[in-house]
């Protein structure tokens, strides 16, 4: 600005009248003016084209190249981009911390590894935190094992959609990339598994339905918008379900279990256009999952038609050579993994000490193999709009104000309430009513006193589970209960997972002098988590002693609130009349304490139903964690409600309400379905609320085959679930159940599904109906 004014002033003077000295001054000024103008123009031009240097195709070196030309096909753009990369650059782009490129094109660092299991998660191990202004917090929804108990497809979708919107907003703010490695849909095969909490539980059908909603919610409507919102990833392929020895473990899985337990959810992911699949650490029948060409190339891509990118679990490429000892040299290892069909390595085997570079030099890996892997990764980035210029970028509407928004906080609270399971609520003799909900006790008027006892009374971060974000607040039970009753006394009594701070005597004394005790017990993600399977399913530390002492002196039946992801052996309390009620509240997210208080006081009528079998401790002695068999063989009692031959403490699907629901079939007649049929044969179930309170209710429909539980047949299979919201007292709702012939197929010993003829049983709640397949 200043230099232009000088130019105008100078030009008004008459040059002819100037003396020599003036001419020199003028020349100096003119040179200065020219330099200033040039510098200004250069600054303006570069600022314009590099307005947002995070956007690859707004970089001046890239913007005119074909790969940035949105009028061309994705295919030709990707090929153009790959053709401009050096071998070294290609290798650097195939690991999770993708280095970018600078020789012929300018690609920024790209982080393939982002997580959004139940809200955008912190990923400090990889790139430092995402959680910096303007996205300092994310909404932390309930951990999946709890969320799944809602059996509510719409809730699953709303949470995944909100998470995807937050994820895109994190990206738009420059704080995350676009490929998110969620959901975890491995079957929760054994209660000891530390990461079972990340999954929707033990049932393949529910897990597949859940996966569909997550993919839709995270990826958005690509057909309508033209681009993916963020990329989802189904993990860990396949049969992953333990942490102990996971780097070298070989999962021995028979064809029948593979077909009807371990593979179906992944197949559903592919059918629903998931854009990524992650391989497991373990081996599958002798071949490491990360070098398993049969599964990756023949099954996932070949038979199922997967067209996204395959990523290794983090460090799994190292495990192929160092733990599985499947390959002998580094070059051979690179070949085995890429040849199997893995595209992106999470880890740094490819880049460390030039291993992949050497494999290319010695001919073990061709440059074409690098190009194929890059193509699959870049294609997903293209579909995300990552290579569009700023003016063509999709999903720009998601901004920091959409993160941790009031709407999402409300959804997280609502979801936490719906994720709580009421396991027990027996009528108390002295009052003639069950202990819950608590509103019938008028503590103010009768001078009764309430004691909250146990190490989870003041639980906070425990509600976040694992793979969580940073919430802007966490609601703790103590404070939230005090909002209903200000005058509560409390005592931790002991710690969750240590023998320190023994205050059992103090707890016992408090229990003795209180009219109602609520126990807050359970475990945490130090006890069950990644790297940590449990070896027992009992309460840890001094908690069993604590409970024993409290029950011995409590004046009224005690209410137990149990916080955990996996099942805890509750057999000692199920039939003990001194325990009036048991509420299973898992790692239910940022509003955990508030949701628990709402359920205890009847502000929300619980409707969760277990998605995992609650076994007793004997189960662990009968089958090892490493035994992958689902069916009862070799002394195993069988796993999950589909095959377990013992008596569970609380079965899959168990969950009480403060009201009761009665089921009747609209028609009495048996149903006949010819094996040649197509489409739906409908059965209508009338569900009536026969209690006095309104409530939500999940209707679960199972089918049991002829000879159920014999000859490797399942006892029953879940085939349908529907959520009824706010059914008021005496209201009747009709539930239509579509039966189709595929529900009456079972996997045989060769892993092939066949229709099983004969008399099946339809089971809805406590009513059954014959179904004849002929
Ligand atoms: C997902 O969220 C967006 C933004 O709030 C909304 O417009 C869209 O309808 C939601 N999608 C679903 C399936 O709920
Ligand atoms: C509850 O825990 C928080 C930390 O999570 C702590 O700051 C607070 O003092 C605890 N409350 C009580 C009453 O101990
Ligand atoms: C149960 O396992 C936990 C850790 O998972 C351990 O701390 C505890 O000592 C074990 N308890 C028993 C009775 O073995």
UniProtKB/TrEMBL annotation:
GO biological process: arabinan catabolic process; xylan catabolic process
Keyword field contains Lipid biosynthesis: no
Ranges that cross the membrane: 24-45
Organism: Pseudolycoriella hygida
Keywords: Glycosidase, Hydrolase, Membrane, Signal, Transmembrane, Transmembrane helix
SMART domains for this protein: Fn3_like
An MF annotation (GO) of this entry: alpha-L-arabinofuranosidase activity
Family: Belongs to the glycosyl hydrolase 3 family.
Listed name of the protein: Beta-xylosidase/alpha-L-arabinofuranosidase 2
Encoding gene, per UniProt annotation: Xyl2_1
Domain of life: Eukaryota
Transmembrane keyword on record: yes
All residue ranges annotated as the Fibronectin type III-like domain in the record: 697-768
């Amino acid at each position: 600005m200043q230099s232009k004014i000088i130019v105008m002033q100078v030009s008004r003077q008459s040059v002819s009248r100037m003396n020599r000295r003036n001419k020199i001054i003028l020349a100096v000024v003119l040179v200065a003016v020219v330099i200033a103008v040039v510098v200004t123009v250069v600054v303006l031009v570069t600022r314009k084209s590099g307005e947002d240097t995070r956007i690859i195709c707004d970089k001046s070196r890239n913007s005119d190249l074909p790969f940035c030309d949105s009028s061309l096909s994705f295919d030709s753009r990707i090929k153009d981009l790959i053709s401009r990369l050096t071998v070294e650059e290609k290798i650097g782009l195939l690991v999770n911390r993708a280095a970018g490129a600078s020789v012929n094109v300018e690609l920024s660092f790209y982080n393939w590894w982002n997580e959004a299991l139940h809200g955008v998660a912190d990923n400090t191990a990889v790139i430092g935190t995402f959680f910096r202004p303007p996205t300092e917090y994310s909404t932390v929804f309930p951990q999946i094992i709890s969320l799944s108990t809602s059996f509510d497809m719409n809730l699953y979708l709303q949470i995944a959609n909100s998470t995807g919107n937050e994820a895109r907003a994190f990206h738009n703010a420059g704080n995350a990339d676009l490929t998110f490695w969620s959901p975890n849909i491995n079957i929760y095969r054994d209660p000891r598994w530390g990461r079972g909490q990340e999954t929707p539980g033990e049932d393949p059908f529910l897990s597949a339905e859940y996966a569909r909603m997550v993919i839709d919610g995270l990826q958005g409507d690509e057909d309508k918008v033209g681009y993916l919102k963020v990329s989802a990833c189904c993990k860990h392929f396949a049969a992953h379900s333990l942490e102990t020895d996971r780097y070298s473990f070989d999962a021995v899985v028979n064809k029948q279990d593979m077909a009807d337990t371990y593979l179906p959810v992944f197949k559903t992911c592919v059918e629903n256009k998931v854009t990524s699949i992650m391989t497991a650490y373990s081996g599958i029948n002798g071949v490491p999952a990360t070098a398993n060409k049969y599964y990756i190339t023949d099954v996932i891509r070949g038979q199922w038609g997967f067209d996204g990118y395959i990523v290794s679990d983090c460090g799994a490429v190292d495990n192929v050579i160092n733990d599985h000892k499947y390959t002998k040299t580094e070059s051979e290892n690179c070949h085995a993994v890429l040849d199997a069909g893995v595209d992106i390595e999470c880890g740094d085997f490819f880049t460390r000490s030039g291993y992949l570079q050497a494999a290319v030099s010695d001919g073990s890996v061709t440059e074409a193999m690098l190009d194929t892997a890059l193509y699959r990764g870049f294609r997903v980035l293209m579909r995300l709009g990552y290579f569009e210029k700023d003016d063509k970028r999709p999903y720009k509407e998601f901004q920091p104000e959409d993160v941790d928004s009031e709407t999402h906080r409300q959804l997280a609270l609502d979801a936490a309430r719906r994720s709580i399971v009421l396991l027990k609520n027996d009528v108390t003799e002295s009052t003639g009513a069950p202990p819950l909900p608590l509103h019938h006790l008028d503590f103010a008027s009768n001078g009764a006193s309430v004691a909250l006892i146990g190490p989870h009374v003041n639980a906070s971060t425990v509600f976040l589970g694992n793979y969580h974000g940073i919430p802007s607040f966490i609601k703790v039970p103590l404070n939230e209960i005090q909002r209903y009753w200000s005058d509560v006394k409390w005592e931790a009594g002991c710690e969750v997972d240590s023998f320190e701070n023994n205050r059992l005597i103090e707890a016992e004394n408090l229990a003795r002098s209180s009219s109602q005790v609520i126990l807050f017990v359970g475990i945490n993600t130090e006890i069950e988590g990644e790297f940590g399977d449990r070896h027992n399913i009992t309460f840890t530390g001094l908690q069993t002693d604590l409970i024993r002492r409290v029950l011995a002196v409590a004046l009224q039946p005690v209410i137990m609130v149990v916080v955990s992801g996996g099942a805890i052996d509750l057999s000692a309390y199920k039939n003990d009349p001194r325990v009036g009620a048991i509420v299973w509240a898992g790692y239910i997210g940022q509003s955990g304490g508030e949701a628990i208080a709402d359920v205890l006081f009847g502000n929300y009528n619980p409707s969760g139903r277990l998605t995992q079998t609650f076994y007793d401790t004997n189960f662990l002695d009968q089958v090892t964690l490493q035994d992958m068999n689902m069916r009862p063989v070799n002394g195993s009692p069988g796993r999950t409600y589909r095959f377990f031959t013992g008596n569970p403490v609380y079965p899959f699907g168990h969950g009480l309400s403060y009201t009761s629901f009665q089921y009747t079939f609209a028609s009495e007649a048996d149903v006949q379905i010819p094996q040649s049929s197509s489409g739906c044969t409908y059965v209508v179930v009338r569900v009536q609320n026969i209690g006095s309170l309104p409530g939500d209710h999940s209707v679960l429909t199972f089918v049991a085959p002829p000879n159920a539980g014999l000859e490797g047949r399942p006892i029953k299979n879940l085939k349908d679930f529907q959520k009824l919201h706010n059914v008021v007292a005496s209201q009747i709702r009709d539930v239509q159940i579509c039966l189709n012939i595929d529900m009456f197929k079972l996997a045989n010993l060769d892993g092939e599904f066949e229709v099983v003829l004969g008399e099946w049983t339809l089971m809805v709640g406590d009513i059954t109906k014959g179904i004849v397949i002929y």
